[in-house]
Specification:
By secondary structure, the chain is of the alpha/beta class. It is built from 15 helices and 22 strands. The strands form six sheets. The chain has a seven-stranded mixed β-sheet, sandwiched between helices. It has a six-stranded mixed β-sheet with strand order 9-8-7-10-11-21, with helices on both faces. The N and C termini lie far apart (72 Å).
Length: 492
Amino acid sequence: MSAQALSTQAPIQDPQKSIYINGEWQAGSDTIANINPSDVSETIGNYSQASDQQVKDAIAAARLAQPKWEKTSMEKKQSILQAIGDEMIARCDELGTLLSREEGKPFAEGRGEIYRAGQFFHYFAAEVLRQMGDIADSVRPMIKIEVTREAVGVVAIISPWNFPTATAVWKIAPALAFGNSVIWKPANLTPASAVAIAEIIHRQGIPEGTFNLLLGGGSSVGDALINSKDIDAVSFTGSVPTGRKVAAATAPNFVRCQLEMGSKNALVIADDADLQVAIDAAVTGAFGGSGQKCTASSRLIVMDGIHDAFVEGVVAKMKTLKVGHALDDGIFMGPVVDDKQLASNMDWIEKAKQAGANLAFGGERLDMPHDGYYMSPTLFTETDNSWDINQEEVFAPLACVMRVNNLEEAIAMTNDTRFGLTGGIITQSLRSSAMFKEQVQAGCVMVNLSTAGTDYHVPFGGRKESSFGPREQGQYAKEFYTVVKTTYQKAY
């Protein structure tokens, strides 16, 4: 596969009519250009931006549709969600290409993301048929108790650009499965993938108003949604500052919110680690997806006995990594998402140097055949955990190595952060892995694996400033997308 062969593939829906409300595609009040970060000379399309009135229209449509959707038969809901997943998987090459063009991740990752998103719909299609309640006896005679779950109502979903399909779908699928109506505001950097998914949902015959798509900025569309009294729940994935804003806006209206935010994940390399396993996990976790993952291994905490061999091995592997156009064959890493992200990444590299870090590899903007936002994967050594580079989420293909003497120091350093999404250890010791799993303050813990990579049928989320509210994914999703009703009935 080559960039030249696939870059001319056209978007599906007319970009200038990419607002979807009450079953109809509409033009917005303005448009924004969707630029390919691998080749900035290519504009994928000029995508609509929703007006204030369209936000109101979408909320009204969702409110009207929600009770009807909740009362739709289980088999009908199941078949719709199953069909959405079927089409996504059947078209994963096409839609993966589109995703890679607008976000910049290699085609293999883009295709995989679409396929996984289809599996999310399949999983929650099955959950539609698996919604069971509880029966209990009362402490009072002749009274039976039923505990059931009902839909929350209208759910606003605000999703990020780094996993523009997967993160959105793991919110949309359970919201629909449990009988809610949805208003989705995707990131403005990745509108094409959102429109493609909305078109698939539309084509499966979902009732009008049940699902709505609003493209637009966070300060306009996003603010209108999180401040609305007619929204029942908001699920958000993004930065900590924006997450705080969502929490502050929803609290006065008693709107439930679910926040997935920042991270600064550590991967510990123990003295007894299999060196090749450690190198592969670190490189994949730190630099895959250009480091633009909330689960990226940005802090590499390495015990003294293996430190030098580990750093040497990581640098050697980094030298083999191919950076290039997202649709080129054999690349490991594409560009970063846009010029602002690239500028921020280069600023962080300078800050690390000024703090006294040793640049072991990379740290450069790359000149490539295509004019895009390319940089080298970057590794710093001899860094201190208290430095900003090790405390702030950078969202770049950049990792910092820190040296420790023992497991106790490694665990303490892992926890010395205001975040707590994922944490990992590479070790051959059952004792060390048990201590790490028990003591690390993270929502997801990995042993002999990269910190990046999660399954769709189990809960996902973190601690501290990484997450707020119920967990996402799997059966735990019902804690956010449903409300519990307890019914008492006396038998005469």
